[in-house]
Design brief:
Shape: elongated
Order of helices and strands: HHHHH
Low-confidence stretches: none
Length: 116
């Protein structure tokens, strides 16, 4: 099925290409200008590219964290081991068990008590 779809789109692309040599030259020139325009975008818009670099750096960090989480989940499922915890650089993790004994008591779930 993949080959049939690929052949269809390739045939459609070939069908819409011009056959006239002048039209082919015009298409080539237009594609060349578009490529040059895209390649020199940061030369024309320096501040926008600098801001995009900052956002892309944050995106890469988030992507790395997500990939590490996915790898840990897959590793946990395949090996049955617990995932490793990332310890922040500013100190150890807080204690995991912060409930007091009063917090552990179950809440009353019945209605008001009545005397019989």
């Amino acid at each position: 099925m993949f080959l049939i779809r690929s052949a269809f789109w390739l045939a459609l692309l070939v069908a819409i290409l011009p056959s006239d040599p002048r039209e082919q030259a015009r298409l080539y020139q237009t594609a060349s200008q578009a490529l040059h325009h895209a390649a020199t975008f940061c030369d024309r818009n320096g501040s926008l590219c600098q801001e995009a670099e900052v956002h892309f750096a944050a995106f890469k960090v988030k992507l790395a964290v997500g990939a590490r989480m996915a790898a840990d989940l897959v590793n946990e499922r395949l090996t049955g081991s617990s995932p490793r915890l990332a310890v922040p650089s500013d100190g150890p993790l807080p204690a995991a068990d912060t409930l007091s004994p009063a917090d552990r008591l179950p809440a009353w779930r019945g209605g008001p008590r009545t005397q019989l």
